[in-house]
Amino acid sequence: MVQSSDELSYSIQSALRSLENPEHRELEKVTIGVGGKCIQSKTRKLFIEFEEREVQEDDLEKLYELAEECLEAGELVLKREMYNIKINNAGIVKNPIGLVANRLEANVHLIYVDREDIEKLTDAIAEAGLEIENLYLNAYASLKSTLIDEESTKMGVALVDIGEGATDIIISKNHKIIYAKSANLGGIHFMSDIMYLFHVSEEEAREVYSAYIKGEMTEQYISASGKRFVKEDVEKIIDARIGDIATFILSTIQESGFTGYLGQGMVLTGGVASLDRLVGKINGQTGGIVRRKKPLSIRGLEKPEYKMATVLGLFLEAIEEEMELQQKRNDEEVREEQQQDELEELLGSQEAERRSSGEAMVKIKKWISYFI
After folding, report:
1. What is the pLDDT of residues 321-331, one digit of tens each?
2. Which UniProt keywords are present, listed alphabetically (predicted)?
3. 288 CB-near residues (< 8 Å, 6+ apart)
4. Who is most buried in 1, 23, 237, 345, counting CB within 10 A?
């Protein structure tokens, strides 16, 4: 949640200044991710009917358009998915395009946000002199950077990213996103609990939390800002907040209706996943298979950390989308070249035919002249 768009805008501008490079390239566009309690989702079972023919890409788009008609004005789709696709009331098909049918049916899942809920964020970016190029779902970005190449997304898995300010949950089955929900629960709330219960400043609370999450509290006490804190007391505070997060995770999975779909259990990532006791506590409360996973390694970042899951996923999404757009442009250029070649071939054929016809007429006239 953005408390002040002015402060965020100033922070963005400061970050931009630190990113200046020798080539003096100015950043003009940014990709941003959205998470937290503003995330909403819904699924609709829809169908369209038409005269019997091959199913086309446009038919799938019509189903998406029908689903989006249920949204209120100002609601913005971040991610959409289609599954349980059927034609002619028959069994489920993976890809209906090219199949002959007169009825197309599917479950359409929309994940969206109200524009007003992200207004401070978009305003801050505009005030910093930047344009938003892409707007993505944080939870999907984290999934993409951690599990997109795994069998987990086929067998069924709940990816839980516990970050600084939010816990994002996304459920995937058969490589499809079937549910998503977020709550404003994260590392910042551990620190606020420490501030309140220990009567310390935000800076001191952050120092205590940081020392604990890094495993630096090996002794019975930890010193921070000249004060000593009992490790057991810190753990009680941490455990209480982990309990809240575990309760949210469990209730979200139950309300999704997909409890029996999680063949690969639950995967934790995000900054708070660094807590060693997190897995055991959540496993004990939810009773499921729980494991942690860091995002994949990329060139220049061979040792990624849990906290990098979302930002790496946003990077991968933006790159993938740009590659798809480039591929479409390339395909369009190839089609145009083919059409041009076909046109030139046709014109050349017509010219050759015209010349051939003209030569034949000359020969006929010459032959007739012999009899005149």
Report:
1. 888 888 888 88
2. Cell cycle, Cell division
3. 262, 265, 266
4. 237
